[in-house]
Amino acid sequence: MADARYDVVGIGNAIVDIIGHCDEAFLVEIGARKGSMSLVDAEEISRLYSKMGAAVEISGGSVANSIAGVASFGGNAAFIGTVANDEFGRIFTHDIRSIGVTFSAPPVLGAAPTSRSLILVTPDGERTMHTFLGISTSLGEKQLDLELIRNSAILYLEGYLFDEADAKRSFHLAVQTATRAGRKVALSLSDGFCVDRHRAEFLDLIRSGIDILFANESEIKSLYQTESFELAAESARNDIKLAVLTRSSKGSIILDEGRTVSISAEPISSVVDTTGAGDLYAAGFLFGYSQGMSLEVSGRLASLAASEIISHIGARPAVPLQQFARDQGIIF
Amino acid sequence: MADARYDVVGIGNAIVDIIGHCDEAFLVEIGARKGSMSLVDAEEISRLYSKMGAAVEISGGSVANSIAGVASFGGNAAFIGTVANDEFGRIFTHDIRSIGVTFSAPPVLGAAPTSRSLILVTPDGERTMHTFLGISTSLGEKQLDLELIRNSAILYLEGYLFDEADAKRSFHLAVQTATRAGRKVALSLSDGFCVDRHRAEFLDLIRSGIDILFANESEIKSLYQTESFELAAESARNDIKLAVLTRSSKGSIILDEGRTVSISAEPISSVVDTTGAGDLYAAGFLFGYSQGMSLEVSGRLASLAASEIISHIGARPAVPLQQFARDQGIIF
Q: Is residue A95, in this structure, part of any structural domain at all?
């Protein structure tokens, strides 16, 4: 896709993660569904923060993590999202730019603080999230750089954008802009409960405007309202050209119309924090795919990036993924 | 020391660390002395931040780290320091309280932002720091809770307080208050360049108002202006009742007047980030000592805490140290 200036442009919530450890009993105490992402207001996030233990602050956001991953692989990547003129906004902006991502939106003044997500990591490495969207709810159409979208081979969007009316309108305008420019559009379903909130619209999109779908097991089962992963996968195969379905330690499958490519999960000695596993899987796949690599190699890069991210705290790569993939002999 | 409400009260700069990785060439490029702590102004910290890579934000501060460690061992600990009414102030306050430390100073309004330290970690795990003191320079005498100091078995201070006139006055008032109440006073020399800035005053203090001195090899050599650790140690033995001298992987020695207790470093498979090693060593020692444990056991707790902190990013314990020490059979 040599005519595009960027390999991938992502649109998503610009979030700083506040990551701490807790035990299972704490999740019960605060009434949280393990593994889920719940939207909370300013008061509730303050209440939860005051109850949780010591934490680490680190840039996050689902599509933002993926875009950082694409850049870490050496891809040309850009991000569109909104931050406020506050410390968390400066942290987010610094971190995504310092990994080489083009992120040029000026901070939005006054409206609300930069988005943040409290992430509670249980001893099994699973993460449970409470997100305060803050300024991300202001991701309006005027924040979209349409020229940037037209200049990117792949547009990548997160399902979480559907949780806000303005962001949803921006989502549709971005898809329309990319499609008209002959670009590919990729979507992450974000999480099972997000699918639950927006099932009909997601199905519409998948059957019309989207080229590549990323979903994990619970998301794809939620989308097709079935307990059977196999049934859900067959439905996805019928609905979309390219479906990339992840199953944690069981690896992933890539459904390319009639063809199925199976990718095993990378072996890993210990899972520290699963935050960002799906995001970095998408990063590896999108990077490989944007470079014209095979589905098999793209899938291996995806698994490799996911294995790196779950070996430490936080959802941004701790090592340059390009070098990591070279060391593994996947790319040269 | 059953009549004291707190085992240890610490006074120090309340800092949020901004920790990122860099290579040796980057330190050369920015003209930094590896392993040192340099004080910088607001403009310089912005300039360095914009040049450094993606980072993690996590509560720090030398004595604050030690006090968090004492609490993590199960000790009654309190901290005195100043934060501003901003995000970094809220992060610092949340983290130190959530580990069980009493920290009751209200944020200081308006004067300057909460202190922060850019910490660059090289591949060998060594850290090089640039600190913007911000609001910490407002640690005046009125911030001191004298009743709290009188009610603490040990007062623990950092040499870094000498870098600001107000903080230095507070330091002296705190020492006087603790001494008059019959409490022990402990001092960390902080770093070799800090010793260089304040050698004469530190020597005065050590020969008069201080009961326990913590120093690493470069600090104690700088204090006595000698290249010989052995000579420096003998000078310390003559000047102070209890000197606790650390030597990284070579372990540490505790000089109790005529007696010398040698403590080996805990074996560790890989050093990720040495930030906080000395702070957590002090935490283990101060906890053991405040509980009336022997110098040998206090030293083992010290080494154990240091080994925990260098195995991960950040200078606050990632696991409860009380449980960790129990698992190792050092305490019951």
A: yes
Query: Which has the closest alpha carbon to A232: A199, A205, A201?
Result: A199
Within 8 A of A96 by CB-CB distance, chain B residues are 54
Chain A interface with B: residues with Cβ < 8 Å: 21, 49-50, 52-59, 68, 86-88, 91, 94-96, 98-99, 313-314, 316, 318
Domain of A94? 6-15+60-110+139-327
Give domain status of residue B50, yes or no: no
Put simply, the answer to whether B50 touches A94 (Cβ < 8 Å) is yes
Contact at CB, A98 and B53, closer than 8 angstroms: yes
Question: Are residues A274 and A310 in contact, defined by beta-carbon separation less than 8 angstroms?
Answer: yes
Q: Residue B136: what are its φ and ψ, rounded to 5°?
A: -60, -20
- A1 pLDDT higher than 60: no
DSSP-based three-state secondary structure for A314: coil
Rounded CA separation B185/B182 (Å)? 10
CATH code of the domain covering residue A256: 3.40.1190.20
A227 class by beta-carbon count within 10 Å (0-12 exposed, 13-18 middle, 19+ buried): exposed
How far from A33 is each of A24, A38, A48, A171, A314, CA to CA, in Å? 10, 9, 14, 28, 20
Lowest mean pLDDT among B49-58, B244-253, B266-275: B266-275
Summary mean pLDDT of chain A: 95
Contacts of B320 in chain A (CB under 8 A): none
CA of A92, closest CA in chain B: separation in Å? 9
Q: Are A278 and A216 in contact (CB under 8 A)?
A: yes
| The total number of structural domains that make up chain A | 1
Residue A138 identity: S
CB atoms B99 and A54 under 8 Å: yes
Within a domain: A52: no
Provide the pLDDT for residue B268: 87
Whether residue B255 is contained in a domain is answered as yes
Note the pTM of the prediction, 2 decimals: 0.93
Taking the CA of residue B318 and the nearest CA in chain A, the distance in Å comes to 9
Q: Measured between CA atoms, how close is A255 to chain B, in angstroms? A: 35
Could you read off the pLDDT of A22-78 as tens digits, one per residue?
Answer: 999 999 999 999 988 999 999 999 999 999 999 999 999 999 999 999 999 999 999
